[in-house]
């Protein structure tokens, strides 16, 4: 069984733990602060460590012998936290790191530049590469479906409180999107692959073939959805004066440009079949998005 450790914060964390446990092929250790009151499912080993401390001795010890470090933190976490985790993983000799990147195609420079995500991407990849110990895995799944359906008019355009819908341009630009469970299933499946081919004739998928690139590319379904150009411009102008209230509008409108950036499937293909991912029925995920919206449970945390 492979040993996985992870910083278990963020929206996707609980789904990821659930799928890893269901998979039954992993020993999962959740790294959490000593003061944390978060309850973990049965079967998860808990390591209470002050991972924000400059003294990483305890964190390095927890990470020794782990195959993968999975980082799932809120985007509002201190920016140096992920770097501290990455450095500790290198000291512990962890072969793989999944940074806190669950969404945009990290290989699409134009999309990441316009969405203001490139600096964070480059900082993380540069640090992992500089240390020269771990390989990175970056999940390409675009926006989380439930979160985006329930997130209001600045995301997929639905406002379930006001019973209104904002269409982006003609509403006919397809993008890929994924649910939290499907995102987590993809990671669990990926980490269940054997490390290397058995010999030169072995063509079956391996974990090593996915390292240091944006994979796996996967989706739940296609979603189509005022002017995206105008919405994006408004977001850009707001960000120039550090108005973070328009960041979400900027981020989502950029994805719906009619140039294929949001539809990575048509340009690069998918890894759903390779990983044996099921085709989901979106009714349950849609209901969850509506429930979250009506109960005001969608803070910006993508």
TrEMBL record:
It comes from the Eukaryota. The keyword Transferase does not apply. PANTHER family: CIPA-LIKE, PUTATIVE (AFU_ORTHOLOGUE AFUA_1G01630)-RELATED, NMRA-LIKE FAMILY PROTEIN. The lineage of its organism: Eukaryota, Fungi, Dikarya, Ascomycota, Pezizomycotina. Pfam families: NAD_binding_10. It comes from Penicillium cf. viridicatum. This is NAD(P)-binding domain-containing protein. Belongs to the NmrA-type oxidoreductase family. Isoflavone reductase subfamily. GO terms for molecular function: oxidoreductase activity.
């Amino acid at each position: 069984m492979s040993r996985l450790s992870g910083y278990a914060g963020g929206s996707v964390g609980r789904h990821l733990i659930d799928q890893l446990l269901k998979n039954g092929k992993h020993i999962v250790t959740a790294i959490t602060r000593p003061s944390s009151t978060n309850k973990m499912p049965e079967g998860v080993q808990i390591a209470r460590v002050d991972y924000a401390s400059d003294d990483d001795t305890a964190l390095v010890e927890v990470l020794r012998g782990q195959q993968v470090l999975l980082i799932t933190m809120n985007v509002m976490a201190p920016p140096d936290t992920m770097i501290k985790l990455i450095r500790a993983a290198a000291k512990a000799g962890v072969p793989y790191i999944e940074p806190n990147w669950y969404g945009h195609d990290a290989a699409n420079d134009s999309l990441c530049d316009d969405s203001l995500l490139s600096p964070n991407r480059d900082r993380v990849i540069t640090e992992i590469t500089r240390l020269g110990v771990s390989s990175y895995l970056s999940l390409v799944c675009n926006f989380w479906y439930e979160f985006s359906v329930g997130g209001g008019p600045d995301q997929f355009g639905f406002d379930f409180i006001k019973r209104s819908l904002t269409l982006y341009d003609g509403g006919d630009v397809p993008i890929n999107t994924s649910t939290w469970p499907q995102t987590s299933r993809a990671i669990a499946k990926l980490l269940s692959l054997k490390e290397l081919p058995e010999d030169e004739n072995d063509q079956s998928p391996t974990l090593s073939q996915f390292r240091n690139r944006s994979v796996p590319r996967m989706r739940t379904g296609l979603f189509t959805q005022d002017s995206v150009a105008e919405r994006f411009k408004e977001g850009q102008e707001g960000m120039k004066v550090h108005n973070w209230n328009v960041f979400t509008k900027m981020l989502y409108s950029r994805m719906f440009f009619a140039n294929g950036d949001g539809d990575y499937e048509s340009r690069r293909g998918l890894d759903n079949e390779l990983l044996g991912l099921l085709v989901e029925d979106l009714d349950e995920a849609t209901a969850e998005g509506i429930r979250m919206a009506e109960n005001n449970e969608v803070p910006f945390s993508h």
